[in-house]
Amino acid sequence: GGCGSGSLWRAGEGQMKLILAIIFFSFSNFLFKTLIDQSEGLTSLMGVPVFLPDWLTYLGSVVVLALFFGAYYIFVSWNEETDAAVLEM
Predict the structure, then answer these.
(1) What pLDDT is attached to residue 44?
(2) Rounded distance between C-alpha atoms, residue 89 and residue 87, angstroms
(3) Tens-place pLDDT, residues 31-50
(4) What percent of the chain has pLDDT over 90?
(5) Which residue range(s) make up the domain with 16?
(6) How many C-beta atoms lie closer than 10 Å to residue 18's C-beta?
(7) Is residue 61 within 8 Å of 53, Cβ to Cβ?
(8) In the chain, is it the N or the C terminus that has fewer CB atoms within a 10 Å radius of its CB?
(9) Total domain count for the chain?
């Protein structure tokens, strides 16, 4: 596996290519985080954290998310039947 957990699992089994991948991923993550923290331009692009219950209360957050995912489920189910939103490649 090439995903995070699969890479860790295989690295634990001794696969050198995934051990190296984890080392270089960790190093590049550290470098990029340092770059972002030291750059005012990049930091300003990050935006602000949002915690929905601060804006909508816990009940409002649950309702909004349930409506969003319900609408998404209805759309996906409809699209599986009709293929109306499928782009031909």
Answers:
(1) 84
(2) 6
(3) 999 999 999 888 888 888 89
(4) 72
(5) 1-47
(6) 20
(7) yes
(8) C
(9) 2
The one-letter amino acid code at 27 reads F
**What gap in Å lies between CA 84 and CA 78, rounded to an integer?**
8
In total, the chain counts a number of residues equal to: 89
Residue whose pair of structure tokens reads 């209805």 in the numeric block? 74
Structure tokens at 3: 């995903």
Domain match, 22 and 35 both: yes
The angle at the Cα of 45, spanning 43 to 49, to the nearest 5 degrees, equals: 80
Which residue reads 């995903």 in tokens? 3
Q: What would the DSSP string read from start to end of the chain?
A: --SHHHHHHHHHTT-HHHHHHHHHHHHHHHHHHHHHHH-HHHHHTT-----HHHHHHHHHHHHHHHHHHHHHHHHHHHHHHH-TTPPP-
